[in-house]
Amino acid sequence: MEAHHIELIRKTIKLAQHNMRQGHGGPFAAIIAKDGIELASGCNSVTTTNDPTAHAEIMAIRNAGQKLGTWKLDGYELYTSCEPCPMCLSAAYWAGINKIWFSANSEDACLAGFNDSHIYQEIAKPTEQRKIDMSALLPAEGKALLAEWVTLPDKVMY
Amino acid sequence: MEAHHIELIRKTIKLAQHNMRQGHGGPFAAIIAKDGIELASGCNSVTTTNDPTAHAEIMAIRNAGQKLGTWKLDGYELYTSCEPCPMCLSAAYWAGINKIWFSANSEDACLAGFNDSHIYQEIAKPTEQRKIDMSALLPAEGKALLAEWVTLPDKVMY
Asked: A32, A99, A133, A145: which to substitute to probe chain B, counting the most B Cβ within 10 Å?
């Protein structure tokens, strides 16, 4: 185990502790880094910014995108004070993160009142079995829109 | 089927079409509404804002939180031009969305180059079997931090 991994995960815990004690949000922080060099960090600010998506990992990924000037974080590693929820884990996949280091796990989070296991279970279910009811409307129109996208000459894929 | 559902889903398709044709991002838009009254909307801007989390549903949820002045969207419905990816679906659960209406489906999106099925598959796997390698570091320190959170008198839960 290289020392910089320990240093970075310890820093996420310090950041999360500060965030919590200052009342800026939940006890969560994350860092995006490569080869032990920190690129960007983020802290949970759900309750202070009225943004249910403002989890630490999402904020760190967004900040990293701003710093790099790209939406691609391929080759970067995500350090987080707690095992990611499915939203943040999915964001890591979209961003191209190739390694996640975490301190507390989902069970610890659940004991502190942050339960994401039901969301993991819901995501894995077929659409029609989820607690959030999901219905298709005007399916042909949305499909036609996506078909138009395919024909656009100057589109930027991600 | 009440007419306002059709109107709102058609509006997401129009917004998505405009977003795509103007080069603002991918062909995706979403609206947060209750009882047919639109609260907020959002469009995909991943490639123009360098934010891999800037999917339409995430943007709509963030905008809704700003407008309402809270991170709780309980009782609100999400209209989206395309079936949500696991990041956006998880965000809907965190926000308390109780109904999702979508036009195009995940298969349509995949045919247009937006494949999220592998992320759905990854999310459902045990931690140690995922393509993004995940490792625990200093687990006791993160656990202690969450235990401190439980003892804080003035914490705001979400």
From this structure: A145
